[in-house]
């Protein structure tokens, strides 16, 4: 069975719309404090795609980019505030898209939890996905 070839998405007010061509590179749940604060949630699920497979269809003038750390930035809709994208200098050829902004099915299930040891104390996870953490967020946890 083959998955979808592409998917679209956008912000709450529809000022920003984007398109993604598959295959994606990863789909992960992130529990770091920046993701939790940025999204106001216990964790955020990111869809990682190669930059050439990502297209901003409309709303480029509405997207606001915030330098959230020395190595990365987060982008959101300047009209409605929807958190949309995360970019990291360590992976310049990749765009991470907040999965909640994607309109349809993607080509993979979430694969793991990163920065799991930084998770909110009130978040309970019952799945069997790998749980990684440590300094990089990707180190195996016991």
Can you characterise this structure?
The protein has one helix at residues 33-39; strands at residues 6-10, 17-21, 26-30, 44-50, 54-58, 63-67, 72-77, 83-88, 94-98, 112-114, 132-133, 139-140. With 142 residues, the protein is mostly beta strands. Strand 1 and strand 2 form a beta hairpin. The longest helix is centred in the N-terminal third of the chain and has 7 residues, at 33-39.
A few lines on this structure:
The chain has about 140 residues and is mainly beta. The chain is about 5% helix and about 40% strand. It has a seven-stranded mixed beta sheet with strand order 6-7-8-9-4-3-10. The protein has a three-stranded antiparallel beta sheet with strand order 1-2-5, with no helix packed on it.
Secondary-structure blueprint:
Elements: E1 6-10, E2 17-21, E3 26-30, H1 33-39, E4 44-50, E5 54-58, E6 63-67, E7 72-77, E8 83-88, E9 94-98, E10 112-114, E11 132-133, E12 139-140
Parallel strand pairs: 3-10
Antiparallel strand pairs: 1-2, 2-5, 3-4, 4-9, 6-7, 7-8, 8-9, 11-12
Order the strands across the largest sheet as they lie in space.
6-7-8-9-4-3-10
Radius of gyration computed on alpha carbons: 15 Å
What value does the average pLDDT take?
95
Alpha carbon gap, first and last residue:
35 Å
Described by strand count, sense and barrel closure, the largest sheet is:
7 strands, mixed
Question: Which term fits the overall shape?
Answer: globular
Structure keywords:
seven-stranded mixed β-sheet; 142 residues; three-stranded antiparallel β-sheet; mainly beta
């Amino acid at each position: 069975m083959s998955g979808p070839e592409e998917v679209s998405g956008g912000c709450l007010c529809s000022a920003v719309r984007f398109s993604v061509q598959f295959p994606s590179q990863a789909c992960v749940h992130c529990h770091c404090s920046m993701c939790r604060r940025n999204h106001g949630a216990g964790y955020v699920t990111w869809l990682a795609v190669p930059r050439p497979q990502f297209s901003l269809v409309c709303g480029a003038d509405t997207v606001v980019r915030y330098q959230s750390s020395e190595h990365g930035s987060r982008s959101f809709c300047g009209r409605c505030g929807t958190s949309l994208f995360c970019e990291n200098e360590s992976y310049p050829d990749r765009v991470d898209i907040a999965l909640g902004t994607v309109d349809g099915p993607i080509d993979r299930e979430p694969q793991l939890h990163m920065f799991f040891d930084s998770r909110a104390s009130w978040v309970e996870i019952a799945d069997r996905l790998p749980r990684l953490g440590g300094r990089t967020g990707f180190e195996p946890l016991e």
